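Exercise: predict the fold of this chain.
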Amino acid sequence: MDKRDYKTAMNKVFLTILGVLLLISCNSGGPKNESSKSDEVSAPVQPAQKVRKPLSFSGTFYQITCIGSPNVVFTEGDYSIEAEAPENILSAIHVDVDCNVLTLSIDREDAIGINQFSSDNAVTLYVSCPSLQLLATCGTGNFKSIGAIHNTDMHVGCLGTGSIELDTVMTSGTFKYESSGDGNAVFHHIRADHDCSMLLSGAGSTTADVDIAEKLLVQNDYTGDVSVSGKANIADVMIMEQSNCVAAFDANQLNLTALKGNVALKGKYKQKEVNQGKNARVSL
């Protein structure tokens, strides 16, 4: 398979995963249990003690989909999955590996009493694999990577309210991020030997430091703020809605289209072309 066919296949896989996630409730829980009313005063419930145990799985993976409330901490390395959670919740954690895709979720979250806004019973999954190439999140859980991720291409998508924080991504090909959710994303450093694109259509903010050998594309179609630093050869920035954008990267060529919102150009550009709408404010 040549590089073009590989990229096409990866995009098809990513779109398939996003389609599946859209059909699954991001809260992936069953009906809530209604507690019976009582006039008696109950003693305060003590939080369950958490334990950390390895989870069994079969197969290899380089793609991860996260559904619901589990928090995920990723490190590059040998294949492993561990869970940190109250003992009574461990059996409800769902781990599935199919066609190189690892799917993480919790069965019937509401029914077993998981409150995604409470740290007392939050579930944290520790995942490792040799190379992460695709990540898709849908839900309230946060995803964080520690240390560098090395790959040929990487595709990241966010559909929920959970945050994504990647330490360092080193790709010999392209990096692509798509968000239509409310979760914030922080990319501490992205180095791509070819292109990098950030397609934003959600309310969450995006912050990235980049080193892009060829073309950087930042397109914001909604209200989430975006801030990009670093450097790129050619950069296309399109701000289509009322939002705040800070372009603090250096580039040989900057092409800016701002129809609305506030854009601050703080980098150095050998050449630049600015198309500004009447409802946009651009500061140089």
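Check your answer against the key: The helical segments are 3-23.
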